[in-house]
Structures are given as structure tokens and as C-alpha cells.
Amino acid sequence: MVSKNQKKLIKSLYQKKYRKQHGLFVAEGKKVIKELLAANLKLHSLFALETGIFDVSKELEHHITEEELKQISFLTTPQVALAIFGIPEVKKPNSNGLILVLDDVRDPGNLGTIIRLCDWFGIRDLVCSLQTVDCYNPKVIQATMGSITRVNISYVNLKSFLTLATPNSRIFGTFMNGNSIYNEKLPEDAIVIMGNEANGISEDIENLIKDRITIPQFGSDQKTESLNVATATAIVLSEFRRS
Q1: Element (H, E) at 26
Q2: Crossing angle, helix 229-242 and helix 108-120, to 10 degrees?
Q3: Pairing mode, if any, of strands 43-48 and 81-86?
Q4: Which of 63, 67, 141, 238 has CA atoms 20 to 30 A from the CA of 44?
């Protein structure tokens, strides 16, 4: 059974302030949980419809019913198991290589997809503004499908981070009126900034960017205003890796 205190803890972890307070986050589904366990993240507790699905200590595993899983799950259709993990220690971003920066990306699904893209394209460091959605939000964790274990994610004051990075790295920003990314010679070592879903890159950050790039629109119908930030990130990272 799931105790009242366990239910209270799980529900509280849907909020950022309690994740920070407890140093814990929630993950759901067999694949995601197995990825997190394989990465040696510290397991706090596991709630599953069947025992023995995961190679974990019996003391941490709790057999529950479908009804109990529905009560603690944030998913419309719960997926076999829910686990609570400890939030790992944040590592300092590398100063070289291709670094992706997010300026105020708010949608959990977008962030989760972007983390998967970083994993796919071998981006070791994802640097986020303090206003960007928390990477341990349950919806983000679900969308990463385990890729969060292979990407170093930092939350920083972007202006300070970029000011310190400027002497060593070219800083690229994505804009509607930049130079076509298909005509640019893109370096292997660079900082690439993606902006907020509605407002793009903030003015303070824009002032630090020298290389303005865009994904040109080829369609004749100009009604489409912009690309989804996760879709744009996929195209941009693909071009940087192709160069």
C-alpha cells in the first residue's frame, strides 16, 4: 500500500519548491526508471504493479494496485511504475565544445525534447536561464525518456555566464531576422542560444550576441510566424554537427 505520508510526498514533488526542499524528483514508466537506475541515480522509493521488474533493493520497492498508481501518478494513463529519485549534484558547464543555452523556455515538453536532442547530437552541456522550466518537472522527465542522465544541465544567470564566456567562444543567437544558418560556416566550439517560445531571446541577452542566425522560411504562405523552439533546436544542432 501507499501510505498517506508517501502520497503527500509524491504529490508535493510536482512542485519545484518541494523538489528543491527534499532534493527529490518523480519519474514514471519502465523505460525512464530503468535509464535512471542504470545511470546510478540514488533511488529513494519505487512503487510498481509487479515486483521484480527492476533490480532494486526489496526495502525500496512497494507493490501497489492500479487504483493506487492512478492516485499518485500525474499521467492520464499511468505506466506500470512510479519512482522517486534523488536529484544529482550539478556539475559546472564545460568551457569548450558545443554548448546549448536556453533563454526562458517555459514549456516542459519543449525542454524534455531539447534534452533528448542534446543527447542525440552529443551536446554535453545544456545551460538554462533561471526562468527556464525546471528539468526535474515530472513532465520534463517523462519527455526526456532517460536522456536527462546523459546531459549536464545547469541553471545560471545567463548574462554573467555569457559575459565570462565571451572571450573564448563565439555566441550564436537564433532570430527571425538573422543570417541564414545554411550559408554560415559554423564552428565546432560555440555557444548557441535558443529563446522563449513567445518572445524569443531577451533584450539583455541579445546585446551580448554577435552572430545572429535564422532558419529561413521556404514556404510561399507566410502565415506561419515561427517554428516551435524544440523543432528549431533540432535543425540548428543538426547544422552545427554537419559543418
Answers
A1: strand 24-28
A2: 10
A3: antiparallel
A4: 67
Cα separation, 98 vs 181, whole angstroms: 16
The pairing of strands 171-180 and 190-194 is parallel
The residue to which cell 536522456 is assigned: 147
Strands 171-180 and 125-129: unpaired
DSSP state of 231: H
pTM above 0.85, yes or no: yes
Distance spanning both ends of the chain, measured CA to CA = 55
CA distance 240 to 190: 9
Cell numbers standing for residue 5: 505520508
* Rg from Cα positions in the chain: 20
User: In angstroms, rounded to a whole number, what is the distance separating the alpha carbons of residues 136 and 16?
Assistant: 8
